[in-house]
3-phosphoinositide-dependent protein kinase 1
Amino acid sequence: MKRPMSVRFLAADEAWREGKCNRFLGFLSLGYVRARMVVANVLAARPPVSCACVTNFSIHMSCRIPIVLISSSRVGTLPVMSRAGLDTPKIVPVQPPAKRSTQDFIFGKVIGEGSFSTVYLTKDVHSAKEYAIKVCDKRHIIREKKTEYIKRERDILNMISSAGVPFFVKLYCTFQDNDSLYFVLSYAKNGELLPYINKVGAFDIECTRFYAGEILQALEHLQRLNIIHRDLKPENILLDEKMHILITDFGSGKIVKNDDQSEDSEDETRRRRNSFVGTAQYVSPELLTDKVAHYASDLWALGCIIYQMISGLPPFRARHEYAIFQKILKLEYEFPEEFDSQAQDLVQKLLVLNCNERLGANDKDGYPSIKSHPMFAGLDFARLHLTTPPAISPYLPSSDVSLDYKVPDHLEPGLDSQLSRLLGLEPESGSPKSRRSQAVEILSNKELRASKLESQAAESRWHSLVEGRLILKQGLVNKRKGLFARKRMLLLTEGPHLYYVDPVSMTLKGEIPWSDEITPEPKNFKIFFVHTVSPNRTYYLEDPEGYALDWCKAIEEVKAFCSGKKV
């Protein structure tokens, strides 16, 4: 019995999907083939369609690639009839499947986690391109009533991706299964901005100018798209493979309708609940009082980020959120010494309590008033995304070593000798013997070690703080976090370990992680860095007595002696 046409169409499609082209062409009539090929070619020529639409977690899937007739994970080539001659097959590549699923990606390591989502590094099985896929737990979203956050993030990412502007993560497609929602996003290979600030302590002014310029340019794009981020902070600023910024996390964002920044229903609900959107250290005062965000709310966050890039810490800091909020509402913050004067002027003009009085708040198209600030002099904003970013370097405040340093009379002429002394290869004549590292001598002699440890236990106030280990070198240093410094007793012990203690409260504050890759670096007679690999961080230390070279030499000696073994 002859099967209905619809059944034959389904059978034909199944044969096509399975790649059984010869059988498929054999049992279909020429008329069917021609009609089907014409449809395929017409559909294949259609432009890409927008990303998935999320409504009450019913996602109507379509991917940002041209839709073709075949919906399959198979990759290869199949015959498609040409328009000019339908009898002559033309071999064209099969596009990746229009409807995506987890089977289209290889899931790698976790690169980010949120309250209801996990972000994975993935690879597209069709193109081998890397993506970041944000996996959102449906049940958690529904239970915590976060549906609007997901929809808002989807809408904003769609707007940004469609605009094609730089400095943002792009949304390529979305899909879902029974348990999760999936956002396929561009992968920021170099991670968040915050760890770079933490690693070097504080950016130099060239780095700060460049990255502040890129953030400002991104805020211009958002203003023109009628979007307010509302949670701008270093953790939400990612860096791509070329070290340009990619702003992410628009779950707290707001789409401004008809340029009306007034309170909407969500703002009203938040005001009733006395809650705020954003992160405590970067939240603007109007979000704490009126619960309403303006474009200038993001400018407040920009001021906080510029302050943090230069100083190493956000301007408003306290032990708990309430105390932070009080400082924000009172505009209670201060600039450390050595803060760049032009950057300070810009920060002061951005951190203004009245949002309408902030620099740039009244600009209508972009932020020309901010771009013309002296801090950005010479910066080509239009070409920032094409410019090679400056290397991220720490800011070194001027040292007062020159005020009390005199060139010794016994030194020989020439630069080479001075460089050798600076690198610790040649000791200064007349240096006290006590300043030379004796660590290796002590560690090599068991009797000497035992004697030293016995004396230390009886006499040293630091003994109990280093877990009974023998102290090989000690001294007061200023441990810097950007431009902020705290006095600490630095203790190099067997093990080896590098402890730092608060000398006033006599409490152990921490330990510099030791490994075979630990590297001391002298910057001058007072300042030295200690670079660690795990975590990837640089500790900025200053010896007020000018013995930085001795510290570096002692660390190197202990590292060489203990490499591969523990004492």
Q: What stands out?
A: The chain has a mean pLDDT of 80.
